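Cross-posted from the bioinformatics board.
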Amino acid sequence: MKRIRVSIYAACLLLLSGTSCSYFEVDDSQDPNRAAIESIQNPSRSQINQLAVGVVAQMRNAYGSNAPYNQVTGVLGREVYVLATNESKWYNDLLGARPLDDISFYSVGAFNQISLARRAAQNLQEASQRSTFLSEEEKKGVSGFANTVQAWAMLHLLNLMGENGIRIEYGNPNDPRNPGPGPFVPYDEALAEIRERLDLAATELNDAGTAFAFTLPGGFSGFNTPTTFRQFNRGLTARVAVYQEDWAGALAALNESFLNLNAATPADLAVGPRHTFGAAPDVFNYYYQNRNANSPTLAFVHPSFLANAEPGDRRVEEKTEPRTTPRTLGDLTGTHDPTLYATNTTPISIIRNEELILIYAEAKIQLGQYEDAISALNTIRTVAGDLAPYAGPRASKDALINEMLKQRQYSLWYEGHRWVDMRRYNRLNQLPLDRTGDQVWAQLRVPFNETAWGGTL
Amino acid sequence: MKKSLLITMTALVCLIGQAWAQNVAVTGVVTSAEEGTPLPGVSVVQKGTSNGASTDGSGRYTISVPGNATLVFTYIGMATQEVPVGNRTTINLAMRSGGAQQLEEVVVTGLASSIKRSNLANAVATVSAEELVGRTRPQTVDAALQGKVAGAVISQNSGAPGGGISMQLRGVSTLTGASQPLIIIDGVYANNEQLGNGSGSPAFTGASSTTHRTTQDQTVNRLSDISPADIETIEILKGSSAAAIYGARANAGVVIITTKRGRQGRTTVNLAQDVGFVTATHLPGTSNWDEARLQAIYGSNPARLAEETALWQAATASGNLHDYEKEVFGNTGTVYNTRLSVSGGNEKTKFYLAAARNDETGIVKRTGFERNSIRANIDHQISRRFDLSLSSNYIRSSNQRGFTGNDNNGIALSYNLAYTPNYHQLHPNEQGIFPDARNTGDNPLAIVERAVNDEQTNRFIQAGTFDINLINEENSQLRFSISGGIDYSNTENQLYLPVDLQSQRDLANPGAVRNSRSRVFNTNLQTALVYNYNLLDNRFHMTTQVGTSRLTNETDLSHEQGLGLIAEQRNPNNAQVPSRYQRLTSYQDVGIFGQQEVNFEDKIIGTLGIRFDKSSLLGDHEKFYTFPKASLAVNLANFGFWPVEQINQVKLRAAYGETGGMPVYGATFVSFDPHIIGGMIGIVPTLIIGNEAIEPERAQELEMGIDLGFFDNKLTLEATYYNKEVKDLIGIFQIPNSTGITQIEAFPLGDLRNRGVELSLGYTPIQTENFSWSGSVQYWHNRTKVTKINVPVQEFRTGFGAAYGTNFFMLGESPTRWYGNPRVPEHPTGYTRYEEAQPDFQMSFANTLTFLKNFDLSFLLHWKEGGYISNLNMLLRDEGGTTHDWSEDDNGDGVVNGEERTGASARYRIQDGSYLRLREVALYYSLPSVVRQSLFKGYVQNARIGVSANNLFTVTDYEGFDPEVSNFGNTPLGAQVDVGSFPNTKRVFFHLSFDF
């Protein structure tokens, strides 16, 4: 028995010697190839900075994707055609020749990227709250910035969804199952929520001191401190206010924005935050296309933009160029290239003084203060369009609304406004139809994954 | 955990019953009854015990047993014999070849123990060296298993040199990743990854939009590195009930490969040479054009129609019509295989040394496969207590596969040949300049000649086992075993498209090169205590084992790419746009296992086992998951009451076991991607996120069967039914986009069930000196059905969409069933339901005939019924006007095939992949000793010559190169998609083999 006992001891010893501590350990893995969520448990100042830059980068990506926002809204609002040789949905589904579906690229392309921009902002906001490296003031600054971007993203989603509404609660940005996203709310309620978020952001920015804890990319030059960023926030708020038909609120917001009614040059009109572009590793402007290009997916100027223009409108001259070889697809012919962006590094404007002046004009018309409105519209006509001042009836609200919408069409062409403007004035039926059987959609369908989750009104 | 282990072991070791009897030393010589030659390595065991010996090189053995004992002689390929000792001291024996089912062979079932097949409660498939490569020479180990394993769907993804094979055991067990069985070579958890090289990325064929490695790269899986000639046996644990002791990695089954080892006795040297020829199994061919076809293909563009008509007329008039498919794929490749092995040893040290070289050229010019392998397997008995064995294998393998598969850039051969009419002129001029292709992005002949897709792998596999025999008594043996291994492989690829190729010239940055490296390092270490002891007068034989295991993996996938090259320069540094990529992965698994076997006189054999596993791949890396198993086998014929002498075996068996499946690496990660804006770097969350709470998916399998043996196993039948339920299948979950997340990479989607039947009939009807015949028939089928769904109906984004066939995760259906256009709004998927991608059933027929003493004729016929394929190949050809039957009208409706089949319905693409294939056929002649003596004197012990063939003929209705195909490689879903595949090949060999 003694030998057996010795053997038992030896056996146990051997078994356990093979099992030193590290033998039984496995890693608590973190992503070695990308920045891991675990690494921002208590984000440092440089991490906050990178998250904030990421938010801007993703805001910019929201204009990209395989269904760029300005192209989808541009086709729906008859500002452009997209004649894609390998994708007829651009000119069949979106122009109403065939029903819209809820899973195609146009249903989710921009929708996904805009939603990701919102999540990036939410994530930054929550990360900053956990950080022990930021002062309370700086946290306010992050929150004001993030809430502004979230409101911006929600507004763009709502523009696509229209009366379908949007969700306004999204749950944990990194684990949507717990708690899950909230229900869809109708258009008006969603607008109110967006407005509230912008107002909250404005309050936070008021309490955010003199500088952000992060550096914004160059496109935000002039809007990169809590005070100046707040002017951008107020500009957006004015846009939301006119959507809400809160005319006084719009003027109040404009008052605190970067509105400059005395613009004398196109440069004065162009003031506002922008997204910049560049060569790799940066990206090129998503909407830039070579003149007379022949690549598969190309945008073309909608003929109505050319036909309805006042002679000599500089905006038409600047934003369009005739092609040497038109493209015909699906009985539609694109004769002009959009040249809104002169080069592949031309920035995209997020909101600019030109729009603020138009918002001012709109609010003034609605409040019956027509002369103020006419003066603002004339600034646009002369400075932006190189046109003669307004010569129509000066006391007709309808005439002035028409004029305002037309100036918006030409000033903000192919930037996502026309379709939304015509929708909020119930004028979608005034948009031109190109072919028999076409129709104008009032909104996109709610994406399949949203409805599958049980999320429609 | 450690403490309870200790207590268990102490208790087990103390349970010792001892018995004792008067021993006699028995010696003898074992020979082959057919050839009269000594048989080395025959196992001689005292019946009912583990007391045993084996014969040396001259067939001699010595064993000490009680005078009333019975000796059991077993040898792979021979019928087992039992001989009562009857107090004799010399027992000589001549053994005969056995039937197809080797019931007495030993099967590995625990992690450190084995069991006689006759006592096994599972249907474990064992493939011997003879069955694996004894007939002919498939390219790779997995190819050599085709048609030989009931319950397995083994399919070639691509016919390109070097293979690329997927193996699915007992149906679909997982939905993501490669889902291949665990491959264990001599105890090493071997790398069988199918790592891409980027040939499908936008810079090359553009098959995928992924810029690094894609699922459409058409690469080999790494089992192709292993030289089939080194393999002694392959055991396949097909389901969870057999594989449970392997725990959380065993959902897809386990393939245990054991290589050859030396045996005591005379040193034998084997030298063998094969010369073979490779041709395509089937080339559908093309057909001549006419005006109607020109009108149909080019009619929408009158100017183009006029041009093409002129070209067609000119080419037809001058006889310049070319079968480009035949020019590209119609060549004959050559194969040279050379093998040298030296094995032998003495009482203490045994060795097996082998070197093998396989060198073959493909059916496409400038393609080929080469494998150089050296192996040293050493076993050494340090003392009575200590045993050491080492297995070392170094491999250098390389392949040149060319570009095939899906394509968007005009690079892949078959894809672009489909659009090339036979009247177009693609041949180079006198200066060697290739004309531009008119219909495709590049000229396929230029791609053959000038594009490069080369791979080279250096791989080292080292296994080692150290055994300590702590107790070595008559009736109790306690062994402590440490085994481990490493598998290190480094694969380097080069992809190159020269700057002046047609497809490159008009690019902003013409010319593309990519040098990639895949470094994979696996380690495993296992400790086990195995205790064999007898209880109650030796009537109960017990085997107890406990142990631990640890696996690690590190992978580094990286590349440098250059776009915009200097002419003739392949260094990415010198490119206009250099870029690089790196992906690192690393994971560890830890397991603890225990198993108890109880054997009551070979009559009733029961096993209980349990395994605990944790892994860094899971959400909770500290949590152990439990995988139990239990099995029972009852050998009715071994009971005294068994009345029928002709039926020598009646075994009823049942086994239950659970295994796990892991999420893919990174499925727990929630991370940020870098984005650059205005010279600043930012981080952005990703649309697809991991799941920090993911748990392993779990398969629970109940297997039941009956094994019958008639007339001393001259006729055997093994029948098995299994029911494998996979719970919490991990899959991609699509969630509301407005959250900013589109997919959760790993989510428990639901449950599915695989049920199937496996039948094996073995027979040895005739066994005389001049003629013997043995064979087997196998039948198997599997049915898969989703039994629970935790999420809304999910479309797997497999294949190429609804026009071609796609798969859904839906209650009551198989996840591999095809769906597609036309739309059916009332169906939950919204689409028409088509057939299953999994076969209805498979059968194989193997027969070996030995005649005129020295001739062996054998063949293996493999029948797969059903198994539908999404065939885009035919669509491409119909669109290009190049199908061989384009102008015919099969259904007589007045619309020619070529126009009809390009219709929107997926019906035209989802096609039956049934086939009947002569997998293997061989005829060998062993030189009679008289001839041998006169030719080689006494230097040659054995000499064989032979001729064989692999895939010699195939009967199929499938309209493509071959019904064995997978554009997406080793994927469990959407595998059977045929788009621009590389044709499969048949191979004919001449063999020569000498034993010295």
